[in-house]
Amino acid sequence: MTPVLPHIVIQTISPDGISRLALTIFFMPIITFFVLFFAGKHIPAFIRSWLATIVMGVMFVLSLCMHIVSEGDHLSVWNWFHIGSIQFTTSMLITSYSTTMMIIATFVSFMVHLYSIQYMKERRNHSKYFPYLALFVSSMLGIVLSDNLLITFIFWELVGLSSFLLIGFWYEKDAAAEAAKKAFMFNKFADLAFVIAIMMLYAIYGTTELSVIKSQTNISGILHTSIFALPVFAGFAIWFATVGKSAQFPLYVWLPDAMAGPTPVSALLHAATMVAAGVYLLLKTSFLLGGWVSNCIVIVGCLTALLAALQAIRTFDSKKVLAFSTVSQLGFMMMAVGVGAYDAAFFHLATHAFFKACLFLSVGAVIHSMHHIQQHSFSHGHYKPFDTLDMRLMGGFRKKMPLTFAAYVVSYAALIGLPLFSGFLSKDAILISLYNQASMDGSWRWLVVIASLTTVFISAFYMSRQLFLIFFGEFRLGKTGEIYNKLFSEIRESDWLINIPLILLGVMSFWIFFSINPLHAQTGWWMKESFILTHIHNTEWFIPLTAFFCTTIAFLLARSIYFNQPNILERRNDLLTVLSEHNYYIEKGIDKIFIQPTMKLSAGIHTMDTCIDKLIHLKVYFFIALAQTANVLDIYIVDGSVHIVARVSRFIGSYFRSYLKGEVQSYFYFTLFAFILILVWLLWYQTAA
Amino acid sequence: MTVIQFAFLFFSIQIIGSSLVILFSRNVVHAATALLSTLLGVAALFVIAGSDLLAVVQLVVYAGGVLILLLFGVLYTYRAPETYYEKRNSYISILMVVVISVFLMLLLSDLAFNFPELHRPPTDRFGITKLTGYLWITNNIVVFEGIALFLLVVLVGAGWIASRIIELNKKES
Amino acid sequence: MIPVSYYITVSILLFGIGSAIVLTRRNILYVLMGIELIFNAANINLVAFGQYDKYLNGQLFAMLIITVAAAESVVALSIIILLFKKLNSVNLTEIKNLKE
Fold first, then answer.
1. Does the predicted TM-score (pTM) go above 0.90?
2. Which residue, A150, A422, B84, C79, is most buried by CB atoms nearer than 10 A?
């Protein structure tokens, strides 16, 4: 059999100092996971949590050192295994993207670990929480460091697994178990595309090493010859994998439901790191994206951003609002990837990680207090459970938890894109790149620009809504019962373990860490030093000004509606609410399009199978009838002929026997008679003859 | 006529007469006695025909064995003589005798009247015993042994039947 | 000596009488006697013709017949006794067990 795959021999490269450091950082959470998973029950909870947290802290410090020291790219290649003569290698690539990503991942996870120590103390916590977190962090680092698509896929799946385990951490709650299943299913469906992409790339290039593939691909050249070439489809398949992991339309519906997990998990996984893994993967495989694939990415990203933002307007669950906000911002990142502004996308990824984590953690602190109120009301005998996440029941937390409020406001400002904050820089970078692309290519891209500006408006609106509902006004839960007011007055600021992450993450939302100039990202060291600029960004004042304008109007609008809202809001009954609640009927659509036909098909096959069974029965009956006929023939004809012969003999015998009546003397008479006959024959005829 | 012929006539009349007695007698014991007389007459006829050994065998076996057995049977099954009275046709008997005899006579006439005469029996001086014995062992040994086997079988069979009957009788009683 | 035809006559007569006894008598014992007479008739015939044989075949055969007849009468008698025990009669009109 002639080999169809191109046979490539890859040189192994042993790791240098920086790569060894990266490997050390990578293996630390793996060891933590194994130790805590198998011995966790026997270690007291105090040691468990602090052990995990300290490990995270050390990892963060090491990655910071690595980022500062490393320059350029460090590639290491090892031999993995071989099948016959085909060699499989693994590789690790450390670029400035990787080190930055490692810093983000380790820093946010360190903050989340600190937060979890306090947060999980009072909730139902079994010994597997920190091991699962360690598993997640190690898988995330695996995705970041790996340069081989197969290894990336392995860690991709592991990240999905840890997400499943962590979302369904409180598995006694039905909602959590369902949400975990949903997350896993949607991710798995998208991962099918990942596998197809791996297969396609292996078939074309004979390897899954990204550096090798990159050196051999010229996507624009391929697109010139034919737009349906295989590498283009491979790029499309990889993008489709990120539709699941990074929650694009229509596969984003698992992310709002995933808020049933603990808040620190939501902060780490579904705000900062896991959902960003998709964007990171696209950045690594950016050489495969071009032409119609990029257009597809932009359109889907635009749709995602807009629809998720619309859903957030009508949501009363505080964590779900943040989830929709995440989806919306992911849409922004994908739009940037689509137009080719990879550095802008990564910038927004980084800033989003910090301010979204901060938002989640601060909202988590508020929820924590609400939970305390509920517990105390139960212990006072007032047994009436309420949804601790519901924003309509909160209010006036500004005075009670000022630090939390401050952290929230800072990250909220970054999310909206107010100047002097990090979000302003990154978001405007994206908007500017979109505008540039539109002004170059025209036509439908202007719609994209308008849609993204609308999304900015809506984002500002719903975030302000959340701000006013939670932190301003009166404590609306107190309206339902006087005991709540009393308990509310006893709320204090959270523990220092909760506050330190809030402070640190809030501080990261300022502009200083990303650019000296608060208004221009292009001149900042982030964009200049860390990335290779692929496009020259023109200095544009138009876009930032428009965005700021939209933001302000939205803020004023929200303030006018929600600022001093005394009543518990009712659910509005209009089209948008219905669409939001049903997730734009995505799940119903999937059910109708895919699940019902499959069920009908299997029912049809079942009936066909029953028919076949009936036919077989018919055949069996036929043969039984045949056997019965043969039996009858055998009895009556074959045996019958024998019986007839016997009967004839008996008949003849009985006829002659009837002459003998049992008298002995008659027997003698007959004998004598016969004797005389014999004599006659002997003597007369013999002698005569 | 010579003595031999006279003896022959006498003994043949004895034979025929005794058998007629058997034929017409109503008393079993009379019949048995007549049978004895017949057998004796036959033995004498054997002597006249030149086989003294056979005459003795006849006397020993028939008269001294079979007859005695028959008498035992008569003894065992004896009933009062009145029960033996049977109304029967004697004419049929005579007729039957005549018919059969005449018929056979006609049949065997060729044999009867075409055989040569003999003047003296071809025996040795001391009778035919030695010669018979010698012939049994040499010429006719197969028949001899066959007959011996036959008698053995009969004896064993009779003994077995008798034993079965004894068991059955014991069961019945 | 005596011509063989005389022997044959006697033999035939004896045979006829013996057959008549067998055919017409009602008592089994009479029948047995008749059978003995028949045997003797045959014997006479055999011995008569045996005179003319160098190897005395006739007489030897007659001896055999005597033997066989004796054995046969033994068996017949035992059967008769059994029958008598079963049926309490020696009347041939009553003994019809051989009938089908």
1. no
2. A422
